[in-house]
Write a structure and sequence with these properties.
single chain; two-stranded antiparallel ribbon; alpha+beta
Amino acid sequence: MDRLGRVIVIKIIFNESYPDEPPLVVSTPPIHDACFDNKGVLHFATKQGLFVWQRYKRYTNPLVYLADELAGHYKAI
């Protein structure tokens, strides 16, 4: 649930190249943040020239770390 009381559903779609390539992450309703586009798709943007997904894929389960960082950023837990 976000700060406005809306329930947000996150859909994670894996492709054949996971974990080398990031999964598709979509929020419904769209989250209004620079990391998400207007359709709710999360973009693994570059940060200081480093492709952000490279940070996560070194872990055994990169989505756990990604979810933890997103939850911390949005104060979801």
